[in-house]
């Protein structure tokens, strides 16, 4: 079962999300929170695989909670689920290591798919969030980011670059292992090395670096 925490200051929203997720059969909502502070405290004291965070919440907003979870509960995968899909929110969420970004008008099956993807170690973006990312990559600042990303990747070995390229595609450790004819455990070791060398907190940040650098996976 995928254990989920729902954080939203509106009880009706939490109830609706709970109903959608529990209908999937392989997802269990183990906790709810009314604000970001409560979400962080709950995730640190409860076995949680995926946390769904709203952005605008009292006491502590969702993006601040996301950053704190990255520091204090790095094993929890975080999805931002919000009404506010502005470009800055999307980019800040990804920069803080969110495993995905969805809007509250997301279809129920898409929400379930996103939770499953996050639990499997993959990233998931709604179409609106994807457009923001694409627009940003196409901006003049993208050239500066690309140069910086290539500089940071220069210290990776050939095999580490291959693993990173597959992270950039959003592949899980198991899928990357199948592509590279390696065990899942070996891929996990390489991922840990890559994150350390690149000074990245999580897979999403490393994947964005791979995209910025234009790193392409090797042909199968």
Write the layout of secondary structure elements.
Elements: E1 2-7, H1 11-22, E2 27-33, H2 36-45, E3 50-53, H3 62-72, E4 77-82, H4 87-95, E5 100-103, H5 108-119, E6 124-125, H6 127-137, H7 141-153, H8 158-168, H9 173-180, H10 184-198, H11 203-212
Parallel strand pairs: 1-2, 1-3, 3-4, 4-5, 5-6
Helix pairs in contact: 2-3, 7-11, 8-10, 8-11, 9-10
Number of helical stretches of at least 4 residues: 11
Helix content: 55-70%
Task: Assign an overall shape.
Answer: globular
* Strand residue content: 5-15%
Helix and strand string, N-terminal first?
EHEHEHEHEHEHHHHHH
Task: Extract low-pLDDT stretches.
Answer: none
- Provide the gyration radius in Å: 17 Å
Question: How many β strands by DSSP?
Answer: 6
Structure write-up:
- It holds the Pfam family GerE.
- It comes from Streptomyces ardesiacus.
- This is Response regulator.
- Residues 149-214 form the HTH luxR-type domain.
- Residues 3-119 form the Response regulatory domain.
- The protein is α/β, with parallel strands linked by helices and 220 residues long.
- The chain is built from 11 helices and 6 strands.
- The chain has a 6-stranded parallel β-sheet with strand order 2-1-3-4-5-6, sandwiched between helices.
- Helix 5 links the parallel strand 5 (100-103) and strand 6.
- Helix 8 (158-168) crosses helix 11.
- The two termini are 32 Å apart.
- 40% of the residues are buried.
- The model has no long low-confidence stretch (mean pLDDT 87).
């Amino acid at each position: 079962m995928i254990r989920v925490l729902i954080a939203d200051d509106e009880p009706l929203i939490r109830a609706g999300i709970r109903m959608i997720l529990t209908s999937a059969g392989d997802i269990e909502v183990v906790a709810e929170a009314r604000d970001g502070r409560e979400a962080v405290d709950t995730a640190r004291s409860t076995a949680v695989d995926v946390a769904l965070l709203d952005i605008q919440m009292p006491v502590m907003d969702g993006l601040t909670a996301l950053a704190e979870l990255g520091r204090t509960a790095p094993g929890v995968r975080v999805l931002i689920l919000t009404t506010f899909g502005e470009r800055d929110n999307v980019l800040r969420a990804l920069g803080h290591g969110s495993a995905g970004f969805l809007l509250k008008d997301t279809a129920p099956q898409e929400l379930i798919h996103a939770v499953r993807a996050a639990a499997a170690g993959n990233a998931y973006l709604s179409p609106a969030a994807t457009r923001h990312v694409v627009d940003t990559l196409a901006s003049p600042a993208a050239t500066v980011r690309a140069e910086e990303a290539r500089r940071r990747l220069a210290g990776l070995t050939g095999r580490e670059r291959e693993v990173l390229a597959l992270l950039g595609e959003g592949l899980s450790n198991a899928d990357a292992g199948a592509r590279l004819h390696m065990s899942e455990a070996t891929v996990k070791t390489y991922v840990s090395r890559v994150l350390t060398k690149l000074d990245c907190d999580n897979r999403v940040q490393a994947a964005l670096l791979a995209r910025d650098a234009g790193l392409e996976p090797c042909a199968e």
